[in-house]
Amino acid sequence: MAFAHSYRRVVEVVLATLATAAMFYFGNGLEPWWPLMWFAPLPVLLFALRRKWWEAALMAVAVMMLGNLNMWSYFTKTLGMPRSAWVGIFLATGVVFAAGALLFRVLVLRGAVWSGLLALPAVWVTSEYVRNITSPHGSAGSLAYSQLKFLPFLQLASITGPWGMSFVLLLFPAAIAIGLHLRHTSAKRALQVAGTGVGVVAAVLVFGVVRLALPQTQMVKVGLITSDEKANATVTDPGADTERLFRDYARKAERLATEGAQAIVMPEKLGVTLEGEAARTDAVLQSLAAQTGATIVAGVVHVDAPIKYNEARIYVPGSVVQRYDKEHMLPPFESNLKPGTTLTVLPRPKQKWGVAICKDMDFASPARLYGQAGAGLMLVPAWDFVVDGSWHGHIAVMRGVEDGFSIARAAKNGFLTVSDDRGRIVGEVSSSSAPFATLLVDVPAAHSWTVYQLLGDSFAWIAIALLVFAMMQMVRLRGRALRQPVPISRPVQSPTPR
């Protein structure tokens, strides 16, 4: 009997670990299947309420390490990071998940179910926000990005940014876990907690459906061009080589302009331009802009010795060449480049367009600043790593939802992607689909106001406050338990023999 009981415990542990790890593996990462993330934490949370704390903690760490094996090749091969970096990052993630699960466990088991409901979401969002403001990779890695294809839910980002999405995504399984745990001992309370979780999700989705149904105006035709041919998938040398490449791109841009493109975006780091010697290169696209009336954005490495910039050169009809310098660099690949500090806003009749570059769109700023400036369309040169083309390219989509603008993003080794301010992909083609891949679509360019522009990361601070509250509840309950007198059991005396 003891062996059978022990065997069942081992099987339960293995099944719960594998189920959660599998849902994290396929529900998150570079190609997430978004429905899985709504249930991924559930087996661990149920296990935590039934077993010892250390067993729950070990399981939480294990599922995170196993579930994030989907990023092993990307970290160690694509980005060239040491294996120890992957281990450190996801071990820390596992510790955060374990801390959230244990706080959830202790509060629910001591009767503070409403505080327990908030525990895991508050711990997780606090961790995501701290990583966002301390890491060179910004918000990349947030659970919210697993939900980019779930458009009604994605609209929550217009109020809370990614923080509210991660919070609700974890609140739901926590509510279900508490409901299942209490269903036999307190059915009414179980229904209240589970109903609250479902109700919050329902309210968010109703808001999302309504927002998606609102009309959009001021359509603009945008064209995107990129080439992944071997000679074009590197940074071309300055001078004649860069001028020749610009002419190749100009021929494709001219065709897009004759088909009605009002804005044309080319990738990041096409070639190298030198301060004081860029006139011949600039003339190629500046003359095309003047001839066609289209605004053209092309990425270059601009050298003003000894300083180098990752720069977007902007060619506007009837204007001098403008520039935008990338603000957020990708270490270690861009550690030798100087970050920019200013926005570039292009006034248009009844519109404003902004310019950013690739990794800038992993961060709340400068995107939120562009939103506050009234930008309705962002023109974004980029360069991805093939395997992350969809994942990294679509991270930018959330910035559009947060800040009320459409995005035209042209990447080498990735995708040409145009999305609107609701997160809908208006058009997309692979950069490897042709020697010179192109995309021409109509997209809304009117700026839409969002709550996130006004409140910024306030929801992250709300999550931090809820975490403090939950921890105070834990301390209070523990103190009350310690103050309660322990009943003294008296020995049972045998009757006195007569």
Please explain how this structure is put together.
Helix content is 49%, strand content 16%. By secondary structure, it is an alpha/beta fold. Strand 10 and strand 11 (415-419) form a beta hairpin. Helix 3 (53-67) packs antiparallel against helix 5 (83-109). The protein is elongated, with a radius of gyration of 27 Å. The chain starts with a helix and ends in a 15-residue tail after the last helix. The relative contact order is 0.11.
Produce a short descriptive summary:
The chain has 498 residues and is of the alpha/beta class. It contains 16 helices and 13 strands.
Topology:
Blueprint: H1 2-27, H2 42-48, H3 53-67, H4 72-78, H5 83-109, H6 113-134, H7 151-154, H8 157-160, H9 162-182, H10 187-213, E1 219-226, H11 240-258, E2 263-265, E3 271-274, H12 279-292, E4 295-304, E5 307-315, E6 322-325, E7 345-348, E8 351-355, H13 367-372, E9 377-383, H14 389-403, E10 406-412, E11 415-419, E12 425-430, E13 437-444, H15 451-455, H16 458-483
Parallel strand pairs: 1-2, 2-4, 3-4, 8-9, 9-10
Antiparallel strand pairs: 1-13, 4-5, 5-6, 7-8, 10-11, 11-12
